[in-house]
Amino acid sequence: MKKHNIMIPKPRSNFVKVECDSCKNIKVLYTYSTKPVLCPSCNAELLVNTGGQAKILGNILETLD
Ligand SMILES: [Zn+2]
Based on the structure, what is the number of domains in the chain? Predict the structure, then answer.
């Protein structure tokens, strides 16, 4: 098992509240998105999909059920 810097929420939590590193805008993301999610404010990438697994690039504030 590789260690990851960013915890991917458990499958039960499909949504996370993420703060953009660049502009501190807060957005709720669907963690199983197959498309990249951009910050609506500054267009920084908040989530990218790396071969089936979403990677969250922002600062995870909380997970939502
Ligand atoms: Zn931003």
Answer: 1
Query: Which residues have CB less than 5 Å away from ligand 1 (the ion)?
Result: 20, 22-23, 25, 39, 41-42, 44
How many whole angstroms from 1 Cα to the centroid of ligand 1?
31
pLDDT tens for 4-63 read 666 665 555 589 999 999 999 999 998 888 889 999 999 999 999 888 778 999 999 999
CA atoms within 13 A on the CB side of 6: 18
52 located within any domain? yes
Rg (CA), the chain: 11
CATH number reported for the structural domain that contains residue 52 in this entry: 2.20.25.100
DSSP letter at 43 equals -
